[in-house]
Design brief:
Elements: H1 2-24, H2 34-45, H3 48-55, H4 64-76, H5 80-105, H6 108-119, H7 122-127, H8 134-149, H9 153-166, H10 170-183, H11 187-221, H12 225-229, H13 234-246, H14 254-278, H15 280-297, H16 312-322, H17 326-345, H18 354-361, E1 366-369, H19 375-380, E2 385-388, E3 399-402, H20 407-410, H21 414-420, E4 424-431, E5 434-440
Parallel strand pairs: 1-2
Antiparallel strand pairs: 3-5, 4-5
Length: about 450
């Protein structure tokens, strides 16, 4: 009888993860957007040592994810599916860690619901299909939290360090953990953790210095770079719970979007807050990293919702605490699932179609754009010659192609430059979020 019960639970868990895996395959081969193309080119054209020496000093992230993906790509290649697959696997591994935490703090039934709310969260599904470091960092943070709950200090420290070497935003979770350990008066464990944490920060400090100096330089050179990173504003604060609850779905008219998304977010957050009253420890780990991030953003802008993606597992467990009745959980799960499938089956909500744009402009062999944003063109059509948009002042051809991606961030008024040289806009093509323009005279 006991064996049958174990099999029943195992089958249910297997069905949940198999379903989560299959839905993540939908649209997995959609076009890379800019940051993913950067990832692809880094691992494609650099050795392991080259990533650390040539790329990382000019990036804003630690190198561990790129090093891992470089090794992965040696076996599986550089296609969209191949490079996104690790994020898919890390999302499932995080889901299993959420299950283990749910069993640890309550029971299996509670754990199943926690896994469902995490694996079918529309924002998690979106980033499970992205060739970036966020799902890897989320996994490392959640498994370190699991070992914190079990008082396994070596593993807690080990995975905390891995999370920091994957994504610097993990520091806010680590600081939250430090204060928690101090509050519990576990001074010996605190000293153990701090010693190894500082040691590994010291090891990476030369790289941190170069990245910090480069980030300061970028903020001075690029007109609106701080707005991309995430300045402290009501909008950026509001987007964190909204995207956590509603995902990357957006539509017009915007007032209707904000009304519907705001109502759903309010419902989800109300259950999160109720759950916080029932488990203050989880609520502490959900909210305090946000507070640290907010304070830090007054000095260096980084208040963007995707940088706090690792908090969604905590939110998922808190929702189950708050929605104690099965009908409440069913309604919430249905809402998350509907939003997830809207994203998956609506191509208009997918990533920028650089693949389609690159195939269209290849016949021109030459384009003008912000050169630092040209990685997607280099990935999809390496034979297209990219000229920086600053060279438009010397352009002489009859017909030119301009890709005005990120010109607003750099503050470049390319239209005025072209009109002063008697060019006029002949045609414009849109490829799901990216545009190519044909100018002639």
């Amino acid at each position: 009888m006991y064996t049958l019960k174990i099999n029943k639970y195992s089958k249910k868990l297997l069905f949940i993860f198999l379903s989560a895996f299959l839905i993540r395959l939908i649209g997995l081969n959609q076009s890379f957007w800019l940051d993913e193309a950067v990832t692809a080119n880094v691992v494609k054209y650099n050795t392991l040592f080259g990533i650390i020496k040539n790329f990382s000093p000019h990036d804003f992230h630690p190198p561990f994810y790129y090093l891992f993906l470089k090794i992965w790509s040696l076996f599986f290649g550089y296609s969209e599916i191949a490079l996104r697959f690790p994020s898919l696997l890390f999302s499932l591994a995080t889901g299993y860690t959420v299950y283990k935490i749910g069993v640890l703090i309550k029971n299996k039934r509670f754990a199943y619901w926690s896994v469902l709310f995490f694996l079918f969260n529309p924002l998690i599904v979106y980033y499970s299909q992205e060739a970036r470091m966020y799902m890897m960092a989320t996994f490392f943070i959640m498994i370190s939290f699991y070992f914190l709950l079990k008082n396994k200090w070596f593993f807690f420290t080990f995975f905390s360090v891995l999370s920091l070497y994957t994504f610097y935003g993990s520091l806010f979770f680590i600081l939250t953990s430090v204060y928690y350990v101090l509050y519990k008066k576990q001074y010996k464990n605190f000293l153990y953790f701090i010693f190894y944490l500082l040691f590994f920060i010291f090891l990476i400090s030369p790289l941190l210095y170069y990245q910090w100096m480069n980030a300061r330089k970028q903020l001075m050179i690029v007109s609106n770079w701080s707005s991309v990173l995430g300045t402290v504003s009501f909008k950026n604060l509001f987007l964190i719970p909204l995207k956590f609850s509603f995902g990357r779905i957006s539509f017009y008219p915007k007032p209707l979007y904000y009304m519907i998304a705001g109502m759903w977010t309010t419902i989800v957050l109300s259950f999160v807050c109720i759950g916080g009253l029932r488990n203050k420890k989880l609520f502490y780990f959900f909210t305090v990293p946000l507070i640290f991030g907010l304070i830090f953003s007054f000095f260096t802008p980084l208040l963007s919702y995707f940088r706090f993606l690792y908090l969604i597992p905590f939110m998922s467990i808190l929702v189950v605490y708050g929605a104690a009745k099965k009908w409440q959980r069913s309604i919430l799960f249905s809402g998350f699932s509907i939003l997830t499938f809207i994203y998956l089956f609506s191509q208009g909500l997918h990533r920028e179609d650089w693949r389609g744009l690159a195939q269209d402009v290849v016949k021109y062999k030459k384009v003008y754009m912000i050169s630092s944003s040209s990685d997607p063109i280099k990935y999809y059509q390496s034979d297209v010659v990219v000229h920086d948009i600053s060279e438009l002042a010397r352009v002489t051809g009859k017909i030119i192609i301009v890709i005005p991606y990120s010109v607003d961030i750099w503050g470049v008024d390319y239209q005025s430059i072209l009109r002063s040289k008697n060019y006029s806009l002949k045609s414009k093509k849109t490829f799901r979020g990216v545009v190519s323009e044909e100018w002639g005279r």
